[in-house]
Design a protein that fits this description.
single chain; 15 helices
Length: 539
């Protein structure tokens, strides 16, 4: 039995768009299904005030199209959401990709037919499509985490969610506004709306380490880089975080006196961005080195915030720096010097409930016109587990009930022909996502071409290889300080979610070398077979 399609792709963000392009170029019969009304993925949904990337624009972009690199002119060092969405719109138009996309359609279930070696894809519109392969390009931060606060639906004012901000924006001028959450979305929203609202009250559970973006217009920098884009991309693929961060420094205490160490931290902080966390090779492994860098950022917070009591509440002390996702800010701490901004530590004054008029925290009811929820995501696994994925009488949700189990973050044993782009236990969120996306998309595309050329129709990881990779991922995390933070890197932010390291902490370059080795060794750890004699489409 021949399936309706060779490949179904789920999601039209950066990964889904590139996967569609790559497979179509190879002659596969491929179609993409997207829950939203247009391309964009996370950059469509996350249009809250101040939303922007925390990776530099020149690296947070595709490398597969040399002409695109030349023609697209990024305006800022860190692109804002409208520019990122315009970029993806441009790519979709340039390559006429929309003709192979279906929008406003959510995939409800996937069921694998073991006899025919194909998936049945069922959507919320009732359509059922069979496909030999499915690529889940569902994103790492795309399943919103709804707060477990009593009365969340009782508020009589306006409630907004950063992950589904109204099209066209919201007029907050002069209003009494609460923001719940101080992760990246909260930090960006707070910084942007503070000057225009009447009053702003921030409810903070855990203070964040934020370093300055040093955002700026980059026309001259981009023009200077373009002739060297190829070298820049290759360096990105072999780097620790998927983007060059300058010369790798030695471990913190190797031949470095305190003055030299301070100088290096000054340089990284002044340059801005997440490369600060790569100031020293052992920053996330050596407790003393980490403590020195953390205290450096704490001192910067004290310098920026004029009220010592507020500065102390904003100062992280309970976890190592970079063990939770760091934030890149454009004046976040300075916001708290404004007379219309106040900060509530919910560990000292717990949120008891949302009332009709506001938020009850501690023994006080704070009245608001608007409540903004910046409460984060069920990261890495949430979007996949939201789909009813079944194979051999078992669901993926059940298999992952004690934590995700994958081989290389690409596939999960027992679920043949299902690929996950930047899935759990790959570098993903510990990297420049676009570098990691391209790595996976190109591997999936080359693998499917390899299989088609040999009339192979089924691929699945070995259980032993998967077990070894899960152990490798856990061991890599254990060599770091990641487990010492209550972070979504470990699944801790979701009540009831198993505590386990979700990304691979060994670095992008190391991961690429492992993946290349697996391929060269004849797809070591994967079982490729002619599970069904019907071949897929040929170019």
């Amino acid at each position: 039995m021949r399936p309706d399609r060779d490949v179904i792709i789920i999601g039209a963000g950066f990964s889904g768009i590139y996967q569609l392009y790559a497979l179509r170029e190879l002659g596969f019969d491929v179609h993409l299904i997207e829950a939203g009304p247009q391309v964009g993925g996370t950059w469509y949904w996350n249009r809250y005030p101040g939303a922007r990337c925390d990776i530099e624009s020149i690296g947070y972009s595709y490398s597969f199209d040399a002409a695109l690199q030349e023609e697209w002119e990024w305006t800022e060092r860190y692109a804002a959401q409208p520019e990122l969405l315009a970029y993806l719109d441009h790519v979709a138009d340039k390559h006429d990709l929309r003709k192979d996309m279906t929008f406003d359609t959510r995939v409800d279930s996937l069921e694998f037919d073991d006899t025919e070696s194909m998936w049945t894809v069922t959507t919320d519109t009732g359509t059922r499509t069979t496909a030999r392969f499915v690529v889940a390009a569902t994103g790492c931060l795309s399943k919103p985490l709804l707060p477990t606060i009593d009365g969340v639906n009782e508020f009589a004012g306006e409630t907004y969610w950063t992950w589904d901000w109204p099209q066209g924006g919201v007029d907050l001028s002069g209003k009494r506004v609460a923001v719940i959450g101080t992760g990246s979305s909260g930090v960006q929203t707070i910084t942007t709306i503070a000057p225009t609202v009447g009053s702003l009250t921030v409810f903070q559970r855990t203070p964040t380490y934020a370093v300055p973006a040093q955002n700026r217009l980059i026309a001259d920098e981009l023009a200077a880089l373009k002739p060297h884009y190829a070298e820049f991309r290759e360096e990105s693929r072999l780097s620790v975080g998927g983007i060059p961060c300058g010369p790798e420094l030695p471990p913190f205490f190797d031949d470095l006196d305190d003055e030299h160490a301070l100088s290096e931290l000054d340089i990284r902080y002044a340059d801005g961005g997440l490369c600060f966390q790569q100031s020293f090779r052992d920053l996330l492994q050596n407790r003393e080195a980490n403590a020195r860098a953390a205290e450096y950022v704490r001192e910067r917070i004290r310098q920026k915030v004029t009220d010592p009591a507020v500065a102390e509440r904003l100062t992280p002390r309970s976890y190592p720096i970079a063990a939770k996702r760091m934030c890149v800010d454009t004046g976040y701490y300075e916001v708290y010097n404004r007379p219309n901004v106040s900060l509530i530590d919910v560990k000292q004054q717990p949120i008891r409930r949302i009332t009709a008029t506001g938020v009850e925290a501690g023994d006080t009811v704070h009245e608001f016109d608007v409540i903004i929820m910046a409460t984060g995501f069920d990261a890495m696994t949430g979007a996949l587990e939201a789909i009813d994925i079944r194979s051999g009488g078992r669901t993926l949700r059940d298999k992952w009930s004690d934590g995700p189990r994958t081989y290389l973050g690409l596939m999960s044993a027992g679920f043949p022909n299902l690929f996950t782009v930047t899935g759990p236990q790959s570098p993903s969120v510990l990297s420049n996502m676009i570098t990691s996306i391209e790595c996976h998309v190109e591997w999936i595309s080359a693998t499917l071409e390899h299989m088609r050329d040999r009339d192979l129709t089924r691929i699945e990881p070995d259980v032993a290889a998967e077990d070894n990779w899960v152990n490798t991922t856990n061991d890599c995390a254990d060599l770091t300080l990641l487990s010492e933070a209550p972070s979504w890197y470990m699944g801790v932010n979701v009540p009831g979610k198993p505590r386990a390291p979700l990304p691979f902490a060994g670095g992008v370059g190391t991961y690429k070398q492992i993946l290349d080795g697996v391929t060269i060794a004849g797809y070591h750890g994967f079982d490729l077979s002619a599970g069904n004699p019907e071949p897929v489409s040929r170019a």
